[in-house]
Amino acid sequence: MVRAILRGAITLLCRMIIAWMGGLKTVGREKVPRKGGVIIAPNHLSYTDGIVVGLSLPRRASFMATSELFTIRWWGWIARLMGAFPVKQDSPDREAIRKAVAMLESGAAIVIFPEGHMSLDGQLQRPQHGVLFIALRAEVPIVPVWIEGTNHLMPPRQTKMRRVEQPILVRFGEAISPQDLAGGLSGRAAIEHAADLLYRKLLELSGSAASGTE
After folding, report:
1. CATH node for 2-207
2. What predicted TM-score, i.e. pTM, was given to this entire model?
3. Active site residues
4. Cα–Cα dist 85/79, whole Å
5. How does pLDDT run across 10-68, given as a tens digit for each residue?
6. DSSP secondary structure string, 89-151?
7. What is the pLDDT of residues 169-206, one digit of tens each?
8. How far apart are CA 91 and CA 177, in angstroms?
């Protein structure tokens, strides 16, 4: 009960802060499946990406977040309270992968940043294989998400916000089914195919027309 109240208070506070800092515009949130396991896969520009995606989603989600976030004062506490769990970067984290697969198989939505790292120059990096392995293992769809503006709200690797001139944009794409991800392949070939497909879908979202409202 106390945890739920704290989570609701933090969500409200985050909405107020983002609104004050420049606002948030969400496009295509109806494309997110309301039930069943699903991976939400945004590009990664800032520590605030998880906040704006969480505020934009039509359902509650957990987050797979870099372990370094949990070492930052307050951010780690807030992350855990809001349902995040750590993953080690640059090495196979089998415990985090098992946890994610189990949660997805039980019907959870999980936000996983497929690039693995923040993009320091704003350019999309190719997806790492971990998120595709998880999706194929759990047999769940991936919803690609394009974020714009958080690198101005809070520059990469920094922890202080600044006001922005335009609202942060969060644009959701169509869910990619596990069958389309695999492309009729198996093993490493399926993962490579899935990575190429997700990369293309994210690039398409980055160049699509921004329209719609939160």
Report:
1. 3.40.1130.10
2. 0.90
3. 44
4. 8
5. 899 999 999 999 999 999 999 999 999 999 999 999 989 999 999 999 999 999 887 77
6. TTS--HHHHHHHHHHHHTT-EEEE-TTSS--SSSPPPPPPHHHHHHHHHHT--EEEEEEESHH
7. 999 999 999 999 999 999 999 999 999 999 999 999 99
8. 27
